[in-house]
Amino acid sequence: MQQPDRPPMIVEEGVVLGSRPAGTADCTLLSLRSPRVAARVRPGQFVMARLLRRDFPYLGRPLSVADVDPADPEVLLLVFTAVGAGTRRLAEASPGDAVRLVGPLGNGFTIAPAAEHVLIAGGIGVAPFPLLARYIARLDPGAQRVCLLGAATRTGLHLAARLRALGVVVETATLDGSEGFRGNVVERLAAHGLHPGSRLYACGPDAMLAALARHLGPTSDTCQAALEAHMACGFGACNACVITVADPGESGGHHELACLQGPVFALGRVRWERTPPVCVAARPSGGP
Amino acid sequence: MHDASSPLEVAVGDLRLRSPLLTASGTFNLKTDLTGVLDVRGLGGIVTKTVTRKPRPGNPPPRIAEVPGGLLNSIGLENEGLEGFRARELPRFAAAGVPLIVSIGGDDAGEFAELAAAFGGRPEVAAVEINVSCPNVDRGTAAFAARPAAMARVVQACRDATRARLWVKLSPESPDLWAFARAAEEAGASALTVANSHVGLAVDWRRRRPVLGRGAAGYTGPGIKPLTLRLVQTVAGATRLPVVGAGGVESADDVMDYLVAGASAVEVGTAYLRHPGVFADITAGLERFVQEEGIGRLQDWVGTLAS
User: At what angle do helices B148-161 and B109-120 cross, to 10 degrees?
Assistant: First the structure.
């Protein structure tokens, strides 16, 4: 069930201001003028984005809102990797192109005061973190903010400079050791250590989140994780984006929708064995 | 929005609708705040997702894949069952203030009849849509869509259980759909919804696997419109029952195409998933036809396709 204080979604025609690779070949940073969505979006929420006046892709693509430009609060920043033909088409958008946005969608991260805020990102899972880091600084000024940023190799590390510019301590980890810690981001978290006052936020591939849940054990109940799912609509109508979750004492679990009850879930509630990993070849953006 | 004399008003049999636009089963709910995006009271009616006797978990994700001309879906009739729907969802739909058509599904005629009885007698339910055509479940449906007699037994059982309006949603996969239409009519149907999803397949050739877990899945969207439009023409010509068109409607032109081909109203599904403002856009388009082209009452265009 949606949070009662969530404002209604908006359908808005955004205008592309610029699109550029975000430092690496497969990651795009798309800035859009979309005043009404930009004014309402909160960290961890997403939009459905679709280029207008094109027959393909037919459906919007769910994209995290990475940031709202502090210099121009009508401007949204979307960061994504082109995993299929649909996102590739979005990545090729030119300034002036119209994009239909439906949003802001979903329940975002909940921020509360903490000694330390630890943002744990795998690959493009870093996308929602600049806006989150900005809100944490606003709502819990002075608290330590750390982003543990992991990827297979250094070209998969995105947004590190942007996060550092926001005052976040960024610690990188790569499987091949090409930058930072050699190993995955969960191992990097183990090296970092956790304090009782740490507040955890995570976003990344399902395999990373599942490994993180195993590592955290019971603590995973307090870790907020943004999940990815295949969806057609983004607002609870298509029923495609089911995530299996279980509450204390519940065996087996039940379905909740990534778009309505998520995309942010308490990591400990997610039943990974009943939630098949998102397969890149099968996601909507991987279609023809 | 529209008064009783609105030119957009249509009728499906004796059920008057203020607009020809209905939501398609399984693509609409009221769990989201639609303020500013959709004026629910401007709809002709709401068709709910399919309700079964017991809760169903549906199929494992991924459940959708985009394909040219729309999408493939394999939701698998996930729903919270008769009791859960009646307790939690029916009151919300009833409060929407538009005719409510409850879609029912089941494995056998007995289950359909029980559901038809449960919903048919309720004042807030304008009609029951009998879903004998979901492509994404194992039991029952294949038989119902393969033989008119099997489908007719379901319709007859529902008719025996209730006097309510019964819309029968046919499968586009059925051979000789006109025969199904006539069998449904003889078994007591009040209207025919033409049609459910077509059936398609997307494969991931590198993995030598279907993209969606069950393999074949329901194909919906603008790509199926010409296929379903032809079925509407066929069925409208084969029975006296009113026909509700469903397949790829996303514009006011699409609505008029369906009406002229023989549909009394249309259901819109996939286009709404793509663009939640689509009902408002189509309504504005229809009003433009009325005001600027002087087309008169939509009702008068139904079934006027020159042969």
Answer: 40
CATH of the domain at B32: 3.20.20.70
The reply to whether B29 falls in a domain is yes
pLDDT at A275 over 80: no
- Residue B124 located in a structural domain: yes
Number of domains in chain B: 1
Residue B124, domain extent:
10-58+75-197+221-301
Chain A residues lying within 8 Å of B207, measured CB to CB: 281
Domains of chain A: 10-105 (2.40.30.10)
- Which of A234, A243, A254 minimizes the C-alpha distance to A276? A243
ipTM of the complex: 0.94
pLDDT tens figures, A121-154? 999 999 999 999 999 999 999 999 999 999 999 9
Confidence of residue A55 (pLDDT cuts 50, 70, 90): confident
Say what the pTM is. Answer: 0.94
The mean of the pLDDT values for chain A is 91
User: Which residues from A are below 8 Å from B221, CB to CB?
Assistant: 58
Q: Any chain A CB within 8 A of the CB of B281? A: no
In sequence order, the β-bridge partners of residue A18 are A31
